[in-house]
Q: What sequence folds into this?
């Protein structure tokens, strides 16, 4: 007599085995996590979106053990082929390629999906993947609308699956160390009263993206099917649709513009470090150079905060017409010191106010928490008027850096959470709490009005 | 002092001059070739706080210079990009030049230093420096052209002193 076990897919097994899950929770010592990288610990990964940002993520994750790349999806076939080629070259297996995310999620047995599609597709793809039983790593900004972002949080709660948002600084050892050790434990900044952040990007890096091989770009009907005509008040030509496909960041119906595209990373750090959401925002923006674009090319905004330590305000600017002014950083200015931190070590500086307790800073140096770079030096010169000048601050540096690509620790955290070994550093709920104020910058600039936040504005 | 003694004294000076030129040109070429195999090796160590490795994963990176075949770059990458855009340099020629430049410099440096077919070695060394000069003219590196011009003068001086070549392994050619 031939006996066959009932055939269940892994996903069906997992979704039907709640009894088993109870047993697992009840016996942690028996079912201890396996060695990272062991074959049975493999995470089967699929990609939705295979463009430039996907390449950044892929390059950051190729050295993480235990990831098995099985599928790649993009409406532009040359991109998914490129991803498949890179996977084959590096790992020797050919992933299945798709142009439809639904089809990929339906056919593949995936544990985790990495989403790096245009912003207006983040929410639909994330919800789709979570409901298909996958854990999701989705690039920031969560969505081009706050409603979209809220739908992601709801889907995460509903499905019980993990949803990490790509605010990679939240897993960066330099950022974690600075917050936990220097700001919280050592209180080197004193009372943080002002925050200043910026991302200044040169004109040369802000131009329209042009693709050299137009034949490889999706046809008009595909682009319409995937919503690249959203928000247009006329029927778009194939050329116009392709411009939107390549330059979706310039269109209000497809993205949040520079303030969300670049500013989201840094305004997230304001909120995370202060442990608070702002109470209001005022903003100004303009199409000062790229007059034909729908979004502002330059935006400046001020957030007001009430923190446990007192009130604080944060200024942020995103400029797409100049790279001068020190690149991109977030500067936390306190009564005793300033920490100017950036994803780039080169833009990171720490300053001690002349009146701060030197013994405390010297002790931090001797313990290895800081490196002293230089004593403050007065600029001097004939134009210096003594009564105008403050004593110059001493300059310090973080004691070390990150020896991996900036996105790697965040993806490692996601993978560890998928294996049950860690908690996400930026799940969708926390990401939205931090991102929510950003959705109101463009409206504040458009209306020239201060927006005082209520729960309606900020809730997840 | 007799004229014979005078000649001996002059010959000694010219012989020493020739050896000096051979040593300089030989070492110059050998080390330039060897440097094309140089690279950096980074080592990350955990930052210590209170004497113990930190829990965050902060690292300090120390870099050192290492030599390896895998580091080889005949034409430095920044110059390679510039040369690849030059219409007078075919891509196959650039690729070939990139492959052979380092080994050629080392071989010619050794033959000049050891005195193996010194005249032909110096002549070929002059051709190599001429080829480098051609490339630098194309990308308007005038200082480099002048620098190589000094090398050429030294090569010609060595060729002019070839009959005073001493301590050579193979004097023919």
A:
């Amino acid at each position: 007599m031939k006996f066959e076990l009932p055939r269940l897919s892994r996903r069906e097994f997992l979704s039907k085995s709640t009894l088993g899950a109870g047993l697992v929770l009840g016996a942690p010592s028996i079912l201890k996590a396996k060695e990272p990288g062991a074959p049975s610990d493999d995470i089967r990964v699929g990609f939705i979106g295979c463009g430039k940002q996907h390449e950044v993520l892929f390059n950051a994750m190729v050295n993480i053990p235990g990831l098995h790349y099985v599928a790649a999806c993009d409406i532009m076939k040359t991109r998914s082929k490129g991803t498949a080629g890179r996977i084959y070259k590096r790992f020797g297996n050919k992933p299945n390629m798709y142009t439809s995310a639904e089809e990929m999620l339906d056919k593949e047995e995936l544990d985790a999906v990495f989403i790096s599609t245009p912003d207006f597709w983040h929410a639909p793809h994330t919800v789709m993947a979570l409901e298909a039983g996958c854990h999701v790593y989705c690039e920031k900004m969560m969505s081009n609308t706050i409603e979209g972002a809220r739908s992601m949080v709801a889907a995460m709660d509903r499905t019980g699956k993990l949803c990490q948002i790509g605010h990679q600084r939240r897993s960066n050892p330099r950022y974690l160390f600075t917050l936990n050790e220097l700001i919280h434990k050592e209180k080197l900044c004193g009372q943080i009263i002002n925050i200043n952040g910026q991302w200044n990007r040169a004109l040369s890096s802000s131009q329209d993206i042009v693709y050299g091989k137009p034949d490889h770009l999706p046809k008009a009907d595909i682009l319409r099917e995937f919503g690249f005509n959203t928000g247009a008040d006329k029927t778009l030509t194939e050329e116009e649709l392709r411009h939107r496909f390549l330059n979706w960041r310039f269109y209000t119906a497809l993205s949040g513009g520079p303030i969300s595209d670049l500013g989201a990373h840094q305004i997230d750090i304001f909120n995370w470090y202060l442990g608070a959401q702002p109470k209001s925002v005022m903003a100004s923006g303009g199409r000062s150079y790229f007059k034909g674009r729908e979004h502002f090319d330059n935006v400046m905004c001020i957030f007001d905060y009430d923190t446990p330590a007192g009130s604080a305000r944060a200024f942020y600017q995103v400029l797409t017409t100049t790279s001068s002014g020190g690149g991109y950083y977030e500067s936390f200015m306190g009564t005793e010191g300033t920490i100017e931190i950036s994803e780039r070590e080169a833009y990171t500086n720490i300053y001690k106010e002349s009146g701060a307790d030197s013994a405390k800073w010297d002790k931090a140096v001797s313990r290895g928490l800081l490196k002293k770079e230089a004593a403050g030096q007065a600029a001097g010169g004939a134009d210096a008027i003594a009564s105008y000048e403050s004593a110059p601050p001493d300059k310090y540096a973080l004691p070390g850096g990150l020896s991996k690509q900036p996105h790697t620790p965040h993806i490692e955290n996601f993978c560890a959470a998928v294996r049950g070994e860690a908690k996400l550093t930026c799940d969708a709920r926390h990401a939205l709490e931090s991102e929510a104020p950003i959705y109101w910058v463009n409206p504040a600039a458009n209306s020239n009005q201060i927006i005082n936040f209520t729960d309606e504005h900020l809730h997840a | 002092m007799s004229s014979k003694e005078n000649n001996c004294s002059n010959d000694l000076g010219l012989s020493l001059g020739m050896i000096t030129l051979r040593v300089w040109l030989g070492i110059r070429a050998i080390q330039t070739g060897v440097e094309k195999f140089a690279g950096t090796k980074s080592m990350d160590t955990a930052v210590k706080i209170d004497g113990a490795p930190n829990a965050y994963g902060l690292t300090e990176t120390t870099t050192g210079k290492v030599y390896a075949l895998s580091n080889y770059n005949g034409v430095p990458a920044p110059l390679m990009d510039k040369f690849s855009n030059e219409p007078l340099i075919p891509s196959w020629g650039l690729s070939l030049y990139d492959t052979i430049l380092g080994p050629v410099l080392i071989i010619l440096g050794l033959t000049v230093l050891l005195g193996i077919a010194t005249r032909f070695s110096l002549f070929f060394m002059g051709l190599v420096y001429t080829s480098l000069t051609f490339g630098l003219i194309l990308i308007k590196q005038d200082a480099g052209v002048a620098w190589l011009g000094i090398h050429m003068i030294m090569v010609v001086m060595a060729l002019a002193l070839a009959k005073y070549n001493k301590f050579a392994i193979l004097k023919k050619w």
User: Anything to note?
Assistant: The helical segments of chain B are 3-35, 77-84, 91-114, 118-138, 142-160.
